[in-house]
Each structure stands twice: as C-alpha cells, then as structure tokens.
C-alpha cells in the first residue's frame, strides 16, 4: 500500500520553510501531494494558479511530490485521493494551538486520516508567507527566504511600488 500524505496550505507564496517540510515529508511518505487551498480569511497576493506553478517549479526535483489545488474541505479531498495522512509543519507553540483545533476537527470529519507534524528547522522558525510579502513589498532582500522563482514573482507583483517611489 502506498503511503500518501497531503501537505495542505495557502502557500502565498511558498517559502523555504514550506519546502523544508515538503522535502522532509517526501523522505517519509511514498507520495506527497502539496494541495493549494484558497484561505477565505486571507487576501492572496498570488492566484491559486500562480501558487500551483511556483510550487511545481520549486518541487520539480522531488519525484514523489505532486502539486494540486482544492477549494473544498481538506478531509473530503483526502478521502478522494485515498490519503492516509496530513502533513503539517510547526514553528512555535502558537502554531500548535491552532493546528490542534484543526486536527481535532479533521479527525471528527475523517478518523481514518492521521495528521503528522514536522517541527521546522530552527533557521525557518520565524518565517511566514505574510512576513515575506511584507519584506518584499518594501523591496528588501528575500533571497534567503524563498526559492529564486518566488523572489522574481514577488518583484513582479510589487514592481509598481518602485515605479511610484521614483515619480
């Protein structure tokens, strides 16, 4: 039986912290599906399609990782894909409190799918997509926080900031 995990998130944008969790999960599970969800409580910078493309580019060297998008409930998606596990990263205690609530609800919705948490590497413990966007918005260097293609995409999204600053 193939051990399939889903690594869900909004990935707006994907960071080196996300990639660390995906890469480490790919060593444990036979297959990992990175599922891009559109978080209704956030205003995304990148479209779902752009996020999927950035993730596909960032994970292209991981043969057992694929990227997909979903707009429904994670547990319905997990059932549809016959997944055995949800793969999540934890940075701090505050993440754990949030994740505990989600995991408990997911378990209620589908008790056949287990959630596995991977602690982030210390070098990424502060990193979030929101922080990356804030830094990039002010044209600060994000090259050690995100893959190169994401850095370019961020510069493209925020290029209007430089144009206004120069006028």
From TrEMBL:
<keyword id="KW-0548">Nucleotidyltransferase</keyword>
<keyword id="KW-0067">ATP-binding</keyword>
<comment type="subunit">
    <text>Homohexamer.</text>
</comment>
<keyword id="KW-0460">Magnesium</keyword>
<keyword id="KW-0808">Transferase</keyword>
<keyword id="KW-0547">Nucleotide-binding</keyword>
<dbReference type="InterPro" id="IPR004821">
    <property type="entry name" value="Cyt_trans-like"/>
</dbReference>
<feature type="binding site">
    <location>
        <position position="88"/>
    </location>
    <ligand>
        <name>substrate</name>
    </ligand>
</feature>
<feature type="binding site">
    <location>
        <position position="99"/>
    </location>
    <ligand>
        <name>ATP</name>
    </ligand>
</feature>
<dbReference type="Pfam" id="PF01467">
    <property type="entry name" value="CTP_transf_like"/>
</dbReference>
<protein>
    <recommendedName>
        <fullName>Phosphopantetheine adenylyltransferase</fullName>
        <ecNumber>2.7.7.3</ecNumber>
    </recommendedName>
</protein>
<feature type="binding site">
    <location>
        <begin position="10"/>
        <end position="11"/>
    </location>
    <ligand>
        <name>ATP</name>
    </ligand>
</feature>
<comment type="pathway">
    <text>Cofactor biosynthesis; coenzyme A biosynthesis; CoA from (R)-pantothenate: step 4/5.</text>
</comment>
<feature type="binding site">
    <location>
        <position position="10"/>
    </location>
    <ligand>
        <name>substrate</name>
    </ligand>
</feature>
<keyword id="KW-0173">Coenzyme A biosynthesis</keyword>
<feature type="binding site">
    <location>
        <position position="74"/>
    </location>
    <ligand>
        <name>substrate</name>
    </ligand>
</feature>
<feature type="binding site">
    <location>
        <begin position="124"/>
        <end position="130"/>
    </location>
    <ligand>
        <name>ATP</name>
    </ligand>
</feature>
<comment type="function">
    <text>Reversibly transfers an adenylyl group from ATP to 4'-phosphopantetheine, yielding dephospho-CoA (dPCoA) and pyrophosphate.</text>
</comment>
<dbReference type="InterPro" id="IPR014729">
    <property type="entry name" value="Rossmann-like_a/b/a_fold"/>
</dbReference>
<feature type="binding site">
    <location>
        <begin position="89"/>
        <end position="91"/>
    </location>
    <ligand>
        <name>ATP</name>
    </ligand>
</feature>
<dbReference type="GO" id="GO:0004595">
    <property type="term" value="F:pantetheine-phosphate adenylyltransferase activity"/>
</dbReference>
<dbReference type="InterPro" id="IPR001980">
    <property type="entry name" value="PPAT"/>
</dbReference>
<comment type="similarity">
    <text>Belongs to the bacterial CoaD family.</text>
</comment>
<keyword id="KW-0963">Cytoplasm</keyword>
<feature type="binding site">
    <location>
        <position position="18"/>
    </location>
    <ligand>
        <name>ATP</name>
    </ligand>
</feature>
<feature type="domain" description="Cytidyltransferase-like">
    <location>
        <begin position="6"/>
        <end position="134"/>
    </location>
</feature>
<feature type="binding site">
    <location>
        <position position="42"/>
    </location>
    <ligand>
        <name>substrate</name>
    </ligand>
</feature>
<feature type="site" description="Transition state stabilizer">
    <location>
        <position position="18"/>
    </location>
</feature>
């Amino acid at each position: 039986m193939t051990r399939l995990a889903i690594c869900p998130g909004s990935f707006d944008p994907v960071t080196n912290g996300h990639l660390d969790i995906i890469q480490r999960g790919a060593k444990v599970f036979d297959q990992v599906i990175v599922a891009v969800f559109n978080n209704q409580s956030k205003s995304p910078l990148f479209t779902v399609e752009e996020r999927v493309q950035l993730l596909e580019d960032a994970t292209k060297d991981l043969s057992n990782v694929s990227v997909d998008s979903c707009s429904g409930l994670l547990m319905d998606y997990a059932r549809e894909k016959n997944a055995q596990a949800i793969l999540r990263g934890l940075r701090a205690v505050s993440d754990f409190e949030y994740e505990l609530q989600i995991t408990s609800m997911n378990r209620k919705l589908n008790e056949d799918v287990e959630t596995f948490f991977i602690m982030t590497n210390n070098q990424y413990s502060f990193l979030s997509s929101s922080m990356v966007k804030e830094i990039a918005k002010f044209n600060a260097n994000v090259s050690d926080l995100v893959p190169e293609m994401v850095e370019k995409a961020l510069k493209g999204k925020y290029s209007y900031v430089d144009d206004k600053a120069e006028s």
